[in-house]
Automatic annotation (TrEMBL):
Region span, Disordered: 32-55
Protein name: DUF3160 domain-containing protein
Pfam families reported in the protein's UniProt record: DUF3160
InterPro entries xref list: DUF3160, UCP014897_arc
Source organism of the structure: Methanosarcina flavescens
Superkingdom in the source lineage: Archaea
Ranges annotated as biased composition (Basic and acidic residues): 39-53
Length: 787
């Protein structure tokens, strides 16, 4: 990657953050924790690894040259030390009915199915449909029912992950609706006005570039602008529709006119966006674009403001001003690419010459990058530096000679690592890894607010497509397959298992082999390269932003639980269940960040006395709780420093911190084979009521039924959907220090993976209809623990 001599404030927020982690250090220690002893503090010199992506590792920088101002985010990830001796009491499998103290009560209430009973005896646990409500969408509801009936309660990792998702999603949607929408409007309006002025005063190719920029920003403003049916006056702040519509004042505030000289192109572009049917040639940029991506999904269906924000932001995230003309079907592709480069130069110059405008861009980029990460594509920062190299401090003349020099300069900058579908179908068939790299180079260019580099999309781009051509196993046993010609890859689609495997799940590797989903030419080679790359990441690498840190929090759930953990956790079936939990949480992550992630394609004073009787059991995964606690602190502290943390959200995060601290304490006792105190027991018994304090989100926001498309295969016009469904019940057998074995129950998330037509990408609302009428099958490997 080209060394940068000047980098503006926001881009360095994350570099400062990482360096502060190295300098301050944060150490997670464990004794006997399955070999996961890891030092989280590394010297900066050890970070100079070979990284072809340019985003997986961070450049070393001279902090003395940085003026971070009010946007400095330092030391926000703090992982406390753990020191646990693993001595959880064991029992023999298969279990006998006579071994379980409360067997009769549970068997009559929950274990009426013989197959479920057999799985419980075999593995020490089983997952069954929710006996209280098979279509339950609130993960906290089961705790209340269990408490009311006096049943043994099992507190699950699923619950905490879902609660974090709720807070992550709510905090993001609030800042988007209350602040980012307005910033984006102001940016687009100012840049439209500047483009019109430039068009009126320029000539030649510069005039044409200004014209296209006017069209570009007019499209964005048209997508942001409230339509009549989106405006509604809500006088009662407690009205369920409060916040769902634009206020009547917005009609006057968000007004603009499409310039007459670009009206036809703008309307043609808007027509394709509103139809969102699939790939078509852009009237403004000429190359092919996937207009199905413009359907608002995720939390962006919850309000009219968010719907419009989604469309405009994805326009800015996807449309590229290309450096090369290879993907532009035109009479003179190189001329078109030169004009697009002039477009990017004009936008960059306007930002550079207008500090207040640049601050708005940086504010928008900083907040979204803290959640999801930095752009996979070049943007204003890189173009500012390149233009300085070419033009110096003098005037800028965007003639053909200068543009050629600028393109040569920018050629030395990084290429994107994830192919986002630009110009799909307008390139030669991709049959080799070299051709795939060339295609990525052809998509290099300027994106105003580029979609973000995320590790799971990077994994998909490297494992699937031209990198794994030719299936070498038995064609009659190919699972999850859709053959397509362009890439020549029989597998066609990635799986969530690929991501889990590279996050450290040996069980995912097992299932990829068992399901014949790794028998592809070059798959092992590419997997090995990725495994080497990911295994070298430090804790600081993993905690560069909230997206990466969320994935890092899942890793303790994916390990092989060995001696010293409860018996049920040492089974292969439990590894499958934990993997399902992780996949469901990953689905929620992709759901929450669907706009930004680049797609590849207090306790009562008087406590009841439990005596020798238990109240239930906490899933003993203190490493997971510890990492999730650090993630929550990082989220709250970072948002506070960015001045986007409101009082309710801060209170919710503080409540979650308190919950996780208590769960760490209790689970440590369980693993050490220590008796729980009366307070511990009461905490488990009242857990349903306690966690209600950790979220002020409404019923809609708390639902577990979510969907996210994570991969697009354009040739067959299919997308890979990841979904979470209704809440299931898990029943586990746990042993007390006195030798008694009890059953306890708790809620777990359900996970789905399936293909869907590109023209019918699913919203949460459509997914819920599908779940109710015709749900897809669960992944085959879940049969080991689900009855």
């Amino acid at each position: 990657m080209k060394n940068r001599t000047q980098i503006t404030v926001t881009l360095l927020i994350f570099l400062i953050f990482l360096v502060s982690l190295f300098m301050g250090g944060c150490l997670e220690q464990s004794s006997g924790l399955g070999g996961e002893n890891e030092t989280m503090q590394k010297e900066e010199a050890d970070k100079n690894k070979d990284d072809p992506s340019g985003r997986l590792q961070t450049e070393a920088v001279d902090l003395s040259d940085i003026e971070a101002g009010n946007l400095s985010l330092s030391g926000n990830y703090r992982l406390d030390a753990l020191d646990i001796e693993l001595k959880a009491p064991q029992y023999k499998l298969p279990l006998q009915e006579s071994d379980i103290v409360n067997y009769r009560e549970f068997s009559q209430k929950f274990l009426t199915d013989e197959a479920a009973m057999e799985k419980l005896k075999e593995n020490g646990f089983v997952v069954i449909p929710n006996p209280y409500n098979p279509r339950e969408e609130d993960i906290t509801a089961m705790y209340d029912r269990l408490e009311n009936e006096g049943q043994q309660i099992f507190i699950t990792s699923d619950t905490l992950l879902h609660l974090y998702h709720v807070q992550f999603d709510e905090s993001m949607s609030q800042v988007e609706q209350n602040e980012l929408y307005g910033i984006l409007w102001e940016l687009d309006k100012a840049l439209l006005d500047a483009s019109i002025e430039k068009y009126n005063n320029a000539s030649g190719e510069e005039k044409e570039a200004a014209k296209r920029n006017a069209a570009y920003f007019a499209v964005a403003l048209s997508l942001l602008q409230p339509r009549e049916e989106q405006i509604k006056e809500i006088k009662n702040p407690y009205d369920p529709e409060a916040g769902m519509y634009f206020d009547p004042a917005a009609k006057e505030k968000y007004q603009f006119e499409i310039p007459a000289f670009v009206e036809d192109d703008v309307k043609a572009e808007l027509s394709l966006i509103e139809a969102h049917e699939g790939f078509d040639h852009s009237p403004i940029f000429l190359y092919k674009e996937d207009y199905s991506q413009y359907l608002p999904r995720g939390h962006y269906t919850h309000s009219e403001i968010l719907k419009n924000y989604f469309k405009a932001f994805i326009w800015h995230g996807r449309m590229s001003m290309l450096l090369k003309g290879k993907l532009i079907p035109a009479e003179n592709p190189e001329k078109e690419a030169r004009i697009q480069t002039i477009q990017a130069s004009l936008i960059t110059s306007e930002l550079e010459d207008n500090p207040e405008l640049l601050k708005k861009w940086e504010r928008l980029y900083a907040i979204t990058a803290f959640y999801v990460g930095v752009s996979d594509d070049l943007g204003p920062y890189e173009y500012m530096e390149a233009m300085e190299s070419v033009f110096g401090n003098g005037s800028k003349n965007f003639n053909a000679t200068a543009m050629e020099e600028l393109k040569i300069e920018l050629a030395g900058y990084r290429s994107p690592e994830i192919y986002g579908g630009t110009g799909s179908g307008d390139h030669e068939p991709i049959l080799t890894a070299e051709q795939a790299d060339e295609l990525l180079e052809d998509t290099k260019g300027f994106r105003f607010m580029g979609q973000r580099f995320v590790p799971d999309s990077y994994i998909f781009s490297r494992l699937i497509g031209p990198y794994t051509k030719e299936y070498t196993g038995n064609p009659e046993q190919v699972p999850f397959t859709y053959i397509y010609s362009d890439y020549g890859n029989n597998r066609g689609f990635p799986r969530g298992l690929d991501t889990m495997a590279l996050l450290g799940s040996e069980r995912a590797v097992y299932w990829l082999d068992e399901l014949d989903d790794s028998s592809y030419k070059n798959y092992s080679l590419r997997y090995g390269e990725l495994d080497s790359e990911f295994s070298n990441f430090s804790a600081a690498d993993w905690n560069r932003n909230l997206y990466w840190s969320w994935l890092y929090s899942l890793q303790p759930l994916l390990k092989d639980y060995g001696e010293g953990y409860p018996t049920f956790m040492q089974t292969d079936a439990w590894q499958d269940k934990a993997m399902s939990t992780s996949l469901a949480s990953w689905t929620e992550l992709r759901h929450d960040t669907i706009l930004y992630a680049k797609q590849t394609y207090g306790i009562a004073d008087e406590l009841p006395v439990f005596g020798d009787n238990p109240a239930g059991y906490v899933e003993p995964v203190p490493e997971f709780y510890n990492r999730l606690l650090a993630l929550i602190r990082m989220t709250a502290d970072g948002l506070e420093e960015l001045d986007t943390l409101d009082e309710d959200t801060a209170r919710n995060f503080e409540s979650l911190e308190s919950v996780l601290n208590k769960l760490i304490e209790i689970s440590e006792k369980e693993l050490k084979n220590e008796k729980l105190t009366e307070e511990d027991k009461y905490y488990i018994f009242k857990f349903g009521e306690i966690i209600k304090l950790s979220s002020s989100a409404d019923e809609e926001a708390r639902k577990t039924t979510l969907v996210a498309d994570v991969y697009t295969e354009p040739n067959n016009e299919l997308v890979l959907e990841e979904g979470t469904g209704y809440v299931d019940m898990v029943i586990v057998a746990y042993k007390l220090p006195d030798g008694r074995i009890f059953l306890a129950a708790g809620p777990v998330m359900s996970y789905y993976e399936f293909k869907q037509p590109t023209s019918d990408r699913l919203t949460d609302e459509k997914w819920r209809e599908m779940l109710e009428v015709n749900p897809p099958e669960r992944p085959e490997w879940t049969s080991t623990y689900i009855s």
